[in-house]
Write a structure and sequence with these properties.
It contains 6 helices and 6 strands. With 214 residues, the protein is α/β, with parallel strands linked by helices. It has a single domain, classed as Flavodoxin domain (Rossmann fold). Strands 1, 2, 3, 4, 5 and 6 form a 6-stranded parallel beta sheet that branches. The longest helix is centred in the first third of the chain and has 15 residues. The two termini are 20 Å apart. The relative contact order is 0.15.
Length: 214
C-alpha cells in the first residue's frame, strides 16, 4: 500500500472505513500498515471500524446526519479497506455507503461526477480477494476486475465527485502460495520487486497497479 499512499501525502486528513470481523486478518494488518505509514508522513488518520462499532447497515427514515458525515466532511482522503464479498463490498460497508452518502449531503441532482460535492476529495479501494489475479482478467472465469469495480468506483465514489485513485488489491492472500525458487532467483538481481505485495525486499515497481476505472 505504501506506493499508493505516497501519491497522496498532501492529503493531511485521512478517514479509513474498515470492514472485517477479525483483528488477526490480513485486512486488519493492511489497515494498521496504512495508519502507521500515513501517521509517519504527518497525516491525521481516523478509522471507522464498522464491525467494532456494530454499525447498522439498513437504511432508516432517521439516517445519519451527524458524526459519520462529519468525519467524511473533514477528510481529504477516504480509504475503504475490506475483503471482497460476492464481487462487492461487505454488507456492513454497503450500509455505510447507503446511510452516509445521502442525497443532499454527498450529491444532488445538479452536483454529480466531475461537478460532485466531493470533487476536492480522494478515495481509494483497498481489498483482498478470494480468487487469484488471473481469474479476474479479461478472459478469466470471474471476468475483468475493471468491470467488477465499475459500480463501486464510478457508480458510487465518482458519482459523489471523489477523485478515485487506483485500487490496492491483495490477490487471494489466504491461499498462501509463494514464489517458486527459480522465480525468486530470476528477479534477485533486478532493481524492483515484482508487485506491491511481492517486492522481494526491493523498491516497489513503479506504475504496477491497474488503472482506476474512472
Amino acid at each position: 500500500m505504501c506506493s499508493h499512499l505516497n501519491l497522496v501525502l498532501a492529503s493531511k486528513k485521512v478517514l479509513i472505513v474498515y470492514a472485517h470481523q477479525s483483528s488477526g486478518s490480513f485486512n486488519s494488518a493492511a489497515k494498521d500498515a496504512a495508519v502507521e505509514v500515513l501517521t509517519a508522513k504527518g497525516c491525521t488518520v481516523e478509522v471507522s471500524d464498522l464491525y467494532a462499532m456494530k454499525f447498522k447497515a439498513t437504511a432508516t427514515s432517521e439516517d445519519i446526519t451527524g458524526k459519520k458525515q462529519r468525519k467524511l466532511t473533514e477528510a481529504d482522503l477516504v480509504i475503504f479497506q475490506f475483503p471482497m464479498y460476492w464481487f462487492t463490498v461487505p454488507a456492513i460497508m454497503k450500509g455505510w455507503m447507503d446511510r452516509v452518502l445521502t442525497l443532499g449531503f454527498a450529491f444532488t441532482h445538479e452536483k454529480r461526477y466531475s461537478q460532485g460535492i466531493f470533487k476536492d476529495k480522494k478515495a481509494m479501494l483497498s481489498f483482498t480477494t478470494g480468487s487469484q489475479e488471473s481469474m479476474f482478467s479479461a478472459n478469466g472465469i470471474n471476468g475483468d476486475m475493471n468491470v467488477t469495480l465499475w459500480p463501486l468506483q464510478n457508480g458510487i465514489l465518482h458519482y459523489c465527485g471523489f477523485q478515485v485513485l487506483a485500487p490496492q488489491i491483495f490477490w487471494a492472500p489466504s491461499h498462501g502460495y509463494q514464489l517458486k525458487p527459480e522465480v525468486h532467483e530470476k528477479h534477485a538481481a533486478k532493481e524492483f520487486g515484482l508487485t506491491v505485495g511481492i517486492h522481494l525486499g526491493k523498491a516497489l515497481p513503479p506504475n504496477n497497479q491497474m488503472k482506476a476505472g474512472v
